[in-house]
């Protein structure tokens, strides 16, 4: 066994030497050179220096709100994202502005970007920064419904309002879940839509469903249409006007706000 191992080692050494000889004689093709990737900046003994960020992803402040208001003036950002938070949409809008101005699209605001943005816009007014909250039937809607597109759902008045930039476009009677299956309150977004949905849990139809929190959705309810407020949902927001919710379903997009609150 030992002699066999020695023979194998010797054979390997001889084979290696033979290959080396062939390479030297140019009889065996050399391996292709390894591709070397370069970085987009030149390093000469020092790390690159980037401009200092005034506002960047993750920042939250009134100053960020003013930044967003200026981006909205330039139609680079939708009003719904006027929220004091330097998130994905704000970063994308900043990149667009930088590209338009020939600035490196870093995605954060440095002094040069800010100076050019100030020069291209006007100082935001109080109304731009804090759009007035809509008042309907003597009651103020939730402040989160004042900007962008929102399904503004008031559990006190049992009304759903489709609001666009603070203007109520449609209004619906709605009902909610019972005590043990209460409709959740808070700020949500439409996660997905299903025109002819059927509940797997309750084996009941949920047409024109717009889901916003787990299995809870805004949808048409034939039971609500027949029995009114004598019944309750399993947590969903029931609508009883079929024609109007058909129209609403086509207007609402995934990502639109859903605000469930008490006035």
TrEMBL record:
<dbReference type="InterPro" id="IPR038063">
    <property type="entry name" value="Transpep_catalytic_dom"/>
</dbReference>
<dbReference type="InterPro" id="IPR050979">
    <property type="entry name" value="LD-transpeptidase"/>
</dbReference>
<dbReference type="Pfam" id="PF03734">
    <property type="entry name" value="YkuD"/>
</dbReference>
<feature type="active site" description="Proton donor/acceptor">
    <location>
        <position position="219"/>
    </location>
</feature>
<dbReference type="InterPro" id="IPR036366">
    <property type="entry name" value="PGBDSf"/>
</dbReference>
<keyword id="KW-0133">Cell shape</keyword>
<dbReference type="GO" id="GO:0016740">
    <property type="term" value="F:transferase activity"/>
</dbReference>
<feature type="active site" description="Nucleophile">
    <location>
        <position position="236"/>
    </location>
</feature>
<dbReference type="GO" id="GO:0018104">
    <property type="term" value="P:peptidoglycan-protein cross-linking"/>
</dbReference>
<feature type="domain" description="L,D-TPase catalytic">
    <location>
        <begin position="149"/>
        <end position="261"/>
    </location>
</feature>
<dbReference type="Pfam" id="PF01471">
    <property type="entry name" value="PG_binding_1"/>
</dbReference>
<dbReference type="GO" id="GO:0008360">
    <property type="term" value="P:regulation of cell shape"/>
</dbReference>
<comment type="pathway">
    <text>Cell wall biogenesis; peptidoglycan biosynthesis.</text>
</comment>
<keyword id="KW-0808">Transferase</keyword>
<dbReference type="InterPro" id="IPR005490">
    <property type="entry name" value="LD_TPept_cat_dom"/>
</dbReference>
<dbReference type="GO" id="GO:0071555">
    <property type="term" value="P:cell wall organization"/>
</dbReference>
<dbReference type="GO" id="GO:0071972">
    <property type="term" value="F:peptidoglycan L,D-transpeptidase activity"/>
</dbReference>
<protein>
    <submittedName>
        <fullName>Murein L,D-transpeptidase</fullName>
    </submittedName>
</protein>
<dbReference type="InterPro" id="IPR036365">
    <property type="entry name" value="PGBD-like_sf"/>
</dbReference>
<keyword id="KW-0573">Peptidoglycan synthesis</keyword>
<keyword id="KW-0961">Cell wall biogenesis/degradation</keyword>
<dbReference type="GO" id="GO:0005576">
    <property type="term" value="C:extracellular region"/>
</dbReference>
<dbReference type="InterPro" id="IPR002477">
    <property type="entry name" value="Peptidoglycan-bd-like"/>
</dbReference>
